Amino acid sequence: MEAIFGDLYRMDKRQLLYQILNFGMIVSSALMIWKGLMVVTGSESPIVVVLSGSMEPAFYRGDLLFLTNCKEEPVMAGEILVFKVRGRDIPIVHRVIKVHENSTGNLNILTKGDNNYGDDREGQIYARGQNYVSRDEIIGRARGFLPYVGMVTILMNDYPYLKYILLGGLAVFVLINRE
Predict the structure, then answer these.
(1) Residue 119: how many CA atoms within 13 Å on its side-chain side?
(2) CATH 1.25.40 describes domain 47-148
């Protein structure tokens, strides 16, 4: 332990405070970048990870999707949407197969996973009593992706101790690094 924290023990109070502030700047910079992406893309979550195989072969588990959410742009069949369903915390990534405008002018959007047998009504993806996705439930539209980059997120969710080890290691590295 002395070998790892030796530099930390040798720091005076001013150097230690500087390192802690440096760590705080890194965290706040990441948050500012995230909030900036939210403003630019119009999406509450501009980057999402594909968590299941329902969209294979278009997207695989662990792919990182980049989203935009321009409300003025019409929703078209064939687009890939990320949407929330009442009662579920995790957003769904599926393709639009039909778009209907009802009598009140609201959109009714039917979706389906490329790798699923039936649409999302048959697959019971939607909330009980829901037959379509509405415009308000859309988080964003897939505009690009990086394959398998999100596997780190999946691993950290599947093995929570890995998340704490990684974050703890990064914090120690920032604190003991004098540059």
Answers:
(1) 12
(2) no
